[in-house]
Write a structure and sequence with these properties.
This protein is of the alpha+beta class. Helix content is 36%, strand content 34%. The chain has a seven-stranded antiparallel sheet with strand order 1-8-9-2-7-5-4. The longest helix is centred in the last third of the chain and has 27 residues.
Amino acid sequence: MTERAPSIQNRKAFHDYFILESLEAGLALVGCEVKSIRNGKANLQDSFARAEKDGIYLYGMHISPYEQGNRYNPDPMRVRKLLLNRYEIDKLSSRIHEKGLTLVPLKLYFKNGRAKIQLALAKGKNVRDKRDKLREKEAQRDVDRALRDRQRRF
């Protein structure tokens, strides 16, 4: 029986950004990094992608060193290249520079044995938007609680 590799999610991204569109990209990794990700030892929080002239790179993603690795484990916070085709790179870099959007990783997972990352083109939320969202969530929770209590009485 094979154990499924965990998917690592960036829940904070949904709180801090409006997600406009998402896409899947490959990730250039070293062997020890792949093993750490399979063990669930990665963190996407506070990470972002930046378009440069030769591709798109992921900054701020932390992958813990593999315990059974050797002394040549890569730096946990190193910059990692995203594997996209030229058309996707040009499209994303133009949208980022034109409209002031940012690329945020949402999810890190394995697909057919290869590490993939789900990127989102996102626009930052201000404090008022975050408060409004929390207020809506709380109101919905109160409604659900009232309906559940009413169901119990009858």
